[in-house]
Amino acid sequence: MKKFNKTYLMGIVCLLFAAWIAWQTSSIPNKLVSNEPGPKMFPYISAAGIAVMSVLSMIFDGKKENEAKEAGQAKPYLDKKGWMRMGLILVECLLFAVFMNLIGFWITAMIGMFVFVMTLKSGKKVNLIFAIVLCVALSSLCYFGFTRGFQIPLPSGTLWKALGIKML
Question: pTM to 2 decimals?
Fold first, then answer.
């Protein structure tokens, strides 16, 4: 039998969270238009993704954690640097929310995604050109997918409205 560790505990917590998301999503009313996926699609995809990644983490990372414990090389789940990085990420998320309303989703998403990539690289080398192209491409895909594809408006920014500039 496998030893119970923090990875398994977090996996179980995330599986319960995924189940809660799926349960709450089931209470969303169906759309009347039958040829569209409806408002339940993305929450169900999110719940499934969280569940799959939790199970994979429990299988692979949990095994590594147990092997490290047995070899006497176990590291703390979050050391001081890890806690500081988590705090920085929370501050970045709050700034993302503020600036999304101020300068709009599209610009904020490009800048915010780049900042997240740089924060999460944790000492690893990241190709700067690739990171910039990835951030611009994914932010544009999200923005135009929602605004043009799904016809869901995203914040365009109060700053641009105040200046009389019409954003895409």
Answer: 0.61
